[in-house]
Amino acid sequence: MSSLRIQSLTKRFTGDPKFPAVNGVSLDIPEGHAMAIVGESGSGKTTLLRMIAGLEIPDGGEIHIGSKLASSVTHVIAPEQRGVGLVFQDGALFPHLTAAKNIGYGLKSMRRKQRAAKVEEMLELVGLSGYGGRYPREVSGGEAQRVALARALAPEPGILLLDEPFSNLDTTLRKQLRDDVKLILKNTGTTSLFVTHDTEDALAIADEIAVMRKGELLQVGEPAALYRNPCDAYCANLFGPANRLPESFMRGIASPPAPGQMGDGWLWTRPEELEVLQASGADAIQVEVTEVRYLGERQELKAVPSNLEGQGATLSSLTLYWEGREEVRPGQRLWIKPRYLH
Amino acid sequence: MGPAKSRSKQAPLFLSPEGNLRVSAQRWAWQLSSPWTITAGSLALIVSIPMLVILANLFSSPGENWEHIRQHTLPGYLKNTAILLTVAGLLSLAIGVPSAWLVSSFNFPGRSIFSWALILPLALPTYVAAYAYGDILQSLIPLQIWVRSNWGVEAFLHAEAVMRYGIVSLILASVLYPYVYLASKAAFCYQASSSIEVSRTLGRGMTATFFRVALPMARPAIVAGLALVMMEIINDYGAVSFFGIPTLTVGIFRTWLAVGDTGAAVRLSAGAMLFILILLIGERMQRGKKGFFASGLKTHHTPQRKQLGRSTGMIAACLCLLPVTTGFLIPGWRLARWTLQTYQKTLTPKFWQLLESTLAIAATGTLTVLLGAVLLSYARRVSTSRFLAPLVHSATLGYAVPGAVIAIGILLPLGWLDKGPVSSLQRLSGSEPSLLFSGSLVALGLAYLVRFLAVAYHPLKSGMERVCTNLDSASRLLGRGPLGTLLRINLPLLRGPLLAAAILVFVDVLKELPLTLVLRPFNFETLSTKAFSLASEGRLAECAVPSLLIVLAGIIGLVPLNRLMEGWKTQ
Fold first, then answer.
1. What is the mean pLDDT of residues B258-277?
2. Nearest chain B Cα to A89, which residue?
3. Is the model more confident about B179 or about B209?
4. Do the first three CATH levels of B34-52+347-525 and B64-327 match, i.e. the same topology?
């Protein structure tokens, strides 16, 4: 396994030279870690992945895989010499080869017997023992992705790249495969970089998450840090509902302001960090409920602050969780206060 | 694909403007240094040489005969070519478009049979069709005599010319119209099908729909088919020389081989190239915006066909039967009858030898062309070079260039090689100077490569486009280089297009006449040259055996052609 270090990686496509697809991205993934890059389509995340794999040639910056310089402005190593594995969104299994032959494809230096043993081992690892003789058209989507994972892992690559590997699967299958992949990556100690537009996937799998937008990295950190302390509105809304509230109101919150927080007197808060009260209390502000959504274990409320003295700026609609048993109706007035303020 | 020579392991991250310049220079060097780019680029260049040689000679000083040719024979060549292009072209349209409309829009007895039977005439090379109808002029002699006795010699000469040009035009059109038929059928059935249905729901009858919707929408496809017909007419040597109509192609051979004035022949060739270039550019321009073809939806369906009544249905069936009869049944029947009369005389051991050498040259030619096409199409896939695309494009233009022109374009540079470097080498080594390349199988192989590269390249390229590039990427990331990926992933997945391309090229080489006639080694005969020489001696019945074999091979070649056209419809 190797570490991955990226410095100021830049790529411009000829069609759009003014806006680079990837703009000065730097990343560090320690050996054995799993990182997810989250971003919407067109954010440049796939281009970044393809540059690491050697399928695109960067216009600037460097890529180090382990101690090896894989790509710089004047030096490019061909993909087949990089020791990088890639699991594609559609699996990209070779349709004319069986699952076993697909997995054995990258094991060209092995003898026949050794190769067969390794293929068997990989099939077992991904839970597909006995599937070796099947052709790609004879397996389901989830199984195909398992074969693709086994194929990518078989040559024991320094880095494993995964390009939206679950996006073609339905929800149940996706969750199961996601957990399995996480376990496999952990057990094999694989350094991995995983690209997705789905934050749930990212939170479930990654040790660290990087948020990418318009070719640039916005924020890198552990899942909890990104969730609690988003650096801006985009990052905040990416991982779930977020409320923008005055710092003065929120002051005294569990931790002192982190460097990622806005320094302009406003703070991003998750709904679960706000306590909803039916009666006014100390430090509480009044809100008027506009929408109610029943979510089972709780109700999600949309609410507008009635008045917030001393705050010149108007507040946008807030998202709140109501866990009481009493029914809440639109138009009703409630009070909120920071949950951890005592 | 080797890495570029690295200036230093630790390259600066930010470069000054001149640094960037140096980097882009290195990038270019890197792009060019890829072995795929180099090999494919050189192949494309070699294949383009004949055409470049001809075009370059357009600007050289003309020989002494040129003035004479220009004033006296050239106008005739041009006039004859233009007449055949016009008359046979219009006839092809008149046969191809209505039959395609009938088959794609109406239900009538035998429709599904006619749908493919209308392609059959394509199995006959123009010269074979000419030989099958070879005695037709003689049968018109009574008519000519009647004209002379009634209106005099001048009228007789006119009538004779009109009959000759008319018959050759008819013969050419009756075997070439399937190009127009296939293209317009594809357009009617697929590209314009939704619009045709919309027009009918808006209350327009079939006739109005044809003229106001179907025909305008299919126009680009029809013209593309017509362009193919015209290229074949310009390329034809066997039919026009048999009926004594000196077209540009005949003029090139006459000036070159009979008069021996290579310079003038090259000029004539350049003229023919100009003809073709105008044709190609015109065809490209009339295509207009691509959106004209496909109306939005990628998924297409066969439109509901209108049921014809009994009498109108019979008329439609007769209209479709007519071109099949004149273009395939009559010539096929005559060839078969002649074969039965003469096969005992023809099928000698010598004939089997001839068959063997024909198959050998066709197989070798096919292999050469396929290798070239695989190399070019795969290099296009893996190479990042900007220089490759235009080179490959020019290399695949050879299909449009008449065989006579390619023959000169190949023999000229090979002749220079033989006279220059080769003969000096031979003198140095003390051996007798001889012609190494000219009149060798190398020259012939190269000629087939130039002429038929596009035939194999296009199906392979579109086949390769259907193979997802992620498969290549996956293979590369699993440690195989570009060659390993080609052999293990791309070629196995391209078995269908490879087979189709092989059959098409094989049949094309088998029936090729002008190139083989001029470039073959001394005493080397193929089915096509044998048919030509027998027909030139007037031994029509005997030339039926080789002709019939060519037609049979041609029928086999129609299978992949039809399948490729099906694919072409969706594009």
1. 83
2. B470
3. B179
4. yes
Q: Give the mean pLDDT of B355-365.
A: 90
What is the residue extent of each domain of chain A? 4-226, 241-338
Report the Cα B467 to chain-centroid distance in Å.
26
A54/B11 Cβ within 8 A: no
Encode pLDDT of B100-109 as tens digits: 999 988 899 9
CATH class of B64-327: mainly alpha
User: Which candidate in A11, A25, A47, A73 is best for mutational testing of the B interface (most B CBs within 10 A)?
Assistant: A73
Residues from chain A that touch B468, judged by Cβ atoms under 8 A, are 90, 92
Beta carbons within 10 angstroms of residue B500's beta carbon: 22
Which tokens go with B509?
């080489």
* Res B15: pLDDT: 38
The nearest alpha carbon in chain A to B5 belongs to A75
Residue A66: its H or E element: none
- Show me where the domains of chain B are located: 34-52+347-525, 64-327
Which CATH number fits the domain B34-52+347-525, given the four candidates 3.90.1150.10, 3.40.980.10, 3.10.20.30, 1.10.3720.10? 1.10.3720.10
**Closest-CA residue in chain A for B27?**
A74
A138-187: pLDDT as tens digits: 999 889 999 999 999 999 998 999 999 888 888 888 888 889 999 999 98
**Mean pLDDT (chain A, rounded):** 85
**Could you report the predicted ipTM of this complex, rounded to two decimals?**
0.80
* Cβ separation A88–B474 shorter than 8 A: yes
The CATH number assigned to the domain with range A4-226 reads 3.40.50.300
Beta carbons of A94 and B474 less than 8 Å apart: yes
The CATH class given to the A241-338 domain equals mainly beta
pLDDT of res. B187: 82
Helix (H, G, I), strand (E, B) or coil at A218: strand
Q: What are the chain B neighbours of A80 within 8 Å (beta carbons)?
A: 476-481
State in Å, rounded, how far the first CA of chain A is from the last one: 48
Q: What pLDDT was estimated at residue B438?
A: 66
Residues in chain A, overall count? 342
CB-CB under 8 Å, B11 with A72: yes
Q: What is the pTM of this model?
A: 0.79
Q: What is the DSSP string of B321-363?
A: HHHHIIIIIHHHHHHHHHHHHHHHHH-SHHHHHHHHHHHHHHH
